[in-house]
Amino acid sequence: MKKYLILALLLIFSLQNFAKDGYELWLDYRPIENSIMRSEADQLFSGIFFFGKNPTYEAIEKELQLAAPKMTGKAPVFSSERLNQTQIWLGTREELAQVLGLQNQIDIRNLGQDGYWMGPVVFQGKTYFTIVGNRPVGVLYGVFDWLKSLQSGSFDLNKVKMESPKIQLRMLNHWDNLDRTVERGYAGFSIWDWHRLPGYIDPRYIDYARANASIGINAVSLTNVNANARILTSDFMKKAMVLADIFRPYGIKVFLTARFSAPIEIGGLKTADPLDPEVIAFWKKKTDEMYQHIPDFGGYLVKANSEGQPGPHEYQRTHAEGANMLAAALAPHGGVLIWRAFVYSHEIDEDRHKQANLEFVPLDGKFRENVIIQVKNGAIDFQPREPFHPLFGAVKQTNLGVEFQITQEYLGQATQLVFLSPMWEEVLRSKTFRPTPTSTVAGIVDGSDSGQRLTLMAGVSNIGTDRNWTGHLFGQANWYSFGRLTWDPYLSSEQIAEEWTKLTFGQNPENLVKIKEIMLDSHEAAVNYMTPLGLHHIMGWDHHYGPGPWVTGGRADWTALYYHRADSLGIGFDRTFTGSKALEQYAPEIIRAWSDSEQIPEKYLLWFHHLSWDYTMKSGKTLWKEIGLHYDQGVKSARKMKSTWETLNGAIDPVQYSHVSQLLEIQVQEAEWWRNACLLYFQSISKRPFPSEIEQPEGDLEYYKSLRFPTAPGIRPKW
Ligand code: GCU
Q1: What is the CA radius of gyration of the chain?
Q2: C-alpha 164 chain-centroid distance
Q3: Which pTM does this prediction carry?
Q4: Which residues lie with the beta carbon below 6 Å from any ligand 1 atom?
Q5: Which residue of the set 33, 265, 278, 307 is catalytic?
Q6: Of 33, 245, 381, 584, which is the active-site residue?
Q7: Residue 718 pLDDT class (50, 70, 90 cuts)
Q8: Which domains are present in the chain?
Q9: Is 381 an annotated catalytic residue?
Q10: Which pLDDT does position 556 carry in this prediction?
């Protein structure tokens, strides 16, 4: 009888779960498929003992109350005594040691502040499944990992698992404005409801914190890097304080963006000169006030002297002088100052690729200890593919963090399925050859090669008020994957895709193979139909959506013509010694290999070389033909993604199926749009015949030039 009741309950829960609108993200707990695992979970949930009491354990308790009924059909039981009824022990090492002297069985001292140990512990002949951290948040991470293992069918009751993150600050950057528009956001408005804060708490804040904690994210910057000084007023501090209070049990620290001219705008001063005593006093007072509201405030994130944002250069001061002044105000409170290396100014008459190194390399060693320079993955701007940023490896005494863009500004925004993990993996694994011959970007960022003690990985968020958070369901995979890589930048995209797919679509092996294939092919597909072979920045101006290789504006505007440099003879940006010499900023090993058009990986060819349309590629075909074939391959891959998805009809949840299916239809059309527009344009310049193997485009170049993308006000850049 009891058995039937459980089956009936499981059926009800699975039906309830049927219509999936994506809100639950990867925390959409479902009945455990494997019956042995289900009964193990059933037993474990029947006696949970916490060795302490604190807000993080309360958060864990709530998570278990949510998960257990969905997974097993029964509510969890929390025991008040640690032995008889108990099956699971949860606590910090210190808590466990006080009571039972268990510290010798579980040695986790090397696992740092956020690590955890999970596995069976035998005490007086009975085995307890135990999750231990050095701090309560470690226990939280362990519990999420355990729940994920149940959900994805990989839980092993007898296995010991130890984990600790390789990066200290695992951070989301929201580009959210105070009026709730989101710069480069494609999933609705900002989830921060400033108007109704601090009085009204949207339940989304808690779900947001849960989702982040479940993938190890421990820091968020709430506001746009194109900052508004009002966020630093007392009124807004009170609002931010409420969010910080909600996030704290989940181990998440709040950062805010600091507008460099705030002393003038909200402080009534005449200057923002970082060496002016009144300015210094303003920031000290502001920062002290911030810590009164948010005692564990993370620090400031600053974009200065870039795209019109104010900064120290207005006062003939350096980035170091600007950053250090703010860092000094934060230092007594243990705060961190994050200063962005994305400097982009129209004033300098140089290849934009070179600007960050030109400004930051001479300042190496001049930044305070609590400053970290946040460097975009590539030197231009989150293009579909970029070689790694030359600042990685070029400085020895400066903390460097990496910044990725999760929101798909240049990668199809919210209509396209592009799994970004392979792109990030490519960057993280890139060999920098500095400071050691085997150094990689990951090794610099996590400190193992660079020796830096302060480490950071930041991702520009793709989250908004859309019911499914990210607009496109597969945008969730990018959020998930970013979090996982901040925890361990050496994880493979395949593993991450597998985890996310199981958590989102269940464990059916055939579905898994297909969905993973779609995900893992998607980035290369997008590169092919947008900007193959090292082309870059040829999208529509301003909105950055569809193709715009014809977009001009003269040298100063750095628009498409400036970047592809196509003329009747050839195409590509010469950044070698005969051109802008940007290649000079890399290690000698890279300079040697990449300055040779025969040796450079073809994926970066036109990034660094200007070559004749008739240049012979490795395939033996001409460059013009290869460009055509790559664009065409992109379209073919998009079509394949769509046809593979169609075979999932009936095999996965119908709401999920239809959502993605409709968007893939749009993606195929957009891939054709990119291919046709770019090839017709390049053909008009090169005057070469259209490669015969490629589908002849419908419409002419004028038609593609006339297409306009309607831009919503919220996604326009401010500058
Ligand atoms: C890109 C983006 C801007 C953003 C900038 C930045 O240029 O288009 O909207 O402000 O990056 O990273 O600061």
Answers
A1: 26
A2: 19
A3: 0.96
A4: 183-184, 225-226, 303, 307, 342, 381, 409, 717
A5: 307
A6: 381
A7: very low
A8: 31-163 (3.30.379.10), 169-180+201-459+481-491 (3.20.20.80), 527-573+610-714 (3.90.1330.10)
A9: yes
A10: 56
